[in-house]
Amino acid sequence: MWQRFLVRKNERALLLKEGDFERFLQPGVYRFLKWGNRYSAQTFNLNKPLFDSGLVDYLMRSESELVKSHFNVLELNDQEAALRFEQGNLVEVLFPGTRQLYWRDAEPQTFERIDLTKTWQLDETLVARLTQQSLRRQQVGNLNAVLMVQVPDAHLGLLRLDGKLVQQLPSGRYGFWRFNRDIQVELVDTRLQALEVNGQEILTRDKVSLRVNLNANWRYDDVALAFAKLPKPAEYLYRELQLGLRAAVGTRTLDELLESKQTVDAVVREYMQSKLTGFGLSLQSIGVKDIVLPGEMKALLAQVVEAEKAAQANSIRRREETGATRSLLNTAKVMEDNPTALRLKELETLERLAERIDKISVFGGLDQLLNGLVKIAR
């Protein structure tokens, strides 16, 4: 004949009579006459301090005194957020417009209100705390409401609120409230950067198709100016390098390009200086890496080079032969006018012949040998 309800020490309960709120139940055992099962109870574990019940609105409206005695009440307007702490530890981020009840008998609760009309950035202490809790794998409820940003060294962060650039962030850690606004941070590398323009198929002035590869080094001079005027500065730089390269190659013949690639570098650099002025970008160096010819053009060019080298070799050979003939002629003129010189030439020739003779047999004495050799030499 009795209905029995047990509320443990770490619990609280709502007593309902025919579905309507009757009163709160503290720890203990409760008995009610069992008359049509008119009574029921909703039990709440204090390990979860949030009072999650469909009766919150009714209790706030009709039982305000009871609510104050049993709960910590948090009500936020549309321009407020809050941080909830348990025993000094941050456990939850609360959204604007929130109305929550937390049991007073649970872990001690404290709240920190944040006026979103005055700031969109978290203070350094809170950022450090959230970072530390993340490293310790301590979960904070609704942490996705905070945008955490790490700006590395030699970078800048561009902070945009609702699409408008409002601040440049130097290297460091930052946190921003996402509530009531669209907030984004774009990281920009301010160091010297390399850009390659590869595989550009270009026709020369004499209608030869070439594949040209170009390297360039560039950097930001004014990051804010660059992103204010250009949605994607690196893409703009790449396109202008393509156009400058085509202008340099398309107005020259193949021979001019092969003779000096530095001419192309100078033309592209001059073109880029005019295109980058006023955009916060600067080109530090530029150079054509290689010029690739079609297969048939390589064969023709090899033949041309071979013919040129053969002609050069033939010219050198003729020049040497002419020099040798002129030397012989001069020698003959000297010997014609000078018998002594002629005799010396005979002896020189005799010496060269003697170097090739392995063995000599002498008949008739030494005088006859010498006379015979002189005759041979003449």
Q: Report mean pLDDT, rounded to a whole number.
A: 84
Q: Can you count the beta strands?
A: 18
Strands of the biggest beta sheet: in what spatial order?
3-2-5
**Pattern of helices and strands:** EEEEEHHEEEEEHEEEEEEEHHHHEHHH
Structure commentary:
- It is built from ten helices and 18 strands.
- It is of the alpha+beta class.
- The strands form seven sheets. A three-stranded antiparallel sheet has the order 3-2-5, with no helix packed on it.
- The longest helix is centred in the last third of the chain and has 43 residues.
- The mean pLDDT is 84.
Record keyword descriptors for this entry.
378 residues, 10 helices, alpha+beta, three-stranded antiparallel β-sheet
SSE topology:
Elements: E1 2-7, E2 11-17, E3 20-25, E4 28-33, E5 39-45, H1 56-62, H2 64-70, E6 71-75, E7 80-86, E8 89-94, E9 99-103, E10 109-115, H3 124-135, E11 146-151, E12 155-161, E13 164-169, E14 172-177, E15 183-189, E16 193-203, E17 209-220, H4 223-229, H5 233-250, H6 254-259, H7 261-276, E18 281-292, H8 295-337, H9 339-355, H10 366-377
Antiparallel strand pairs: 1-4, 2-3, 2-5, 6-9, 7-8, 7-10, 11-14, 12-13, 12-15, 16-17, 17-18
Helix pairs in contact: 5-7, 8-9
Summarize the structure.
The chain is α+β, with helices and mostly antiparallel strands and 378 residues long. The protein has helices spanning 56-62, 64-70, 124-135, 223-229, 233-250, 254-259, 261-276, 295-337, 339-355, 366-377; strands at residues 2-7, 11-17, 20-25, 28-33, 39-45, 71-75, 80-86, 89-94, 99-103, 109-115, 146-151, 155-161, 164-169, 172-177, 183-189, 193-203, 209-220, 281-292.
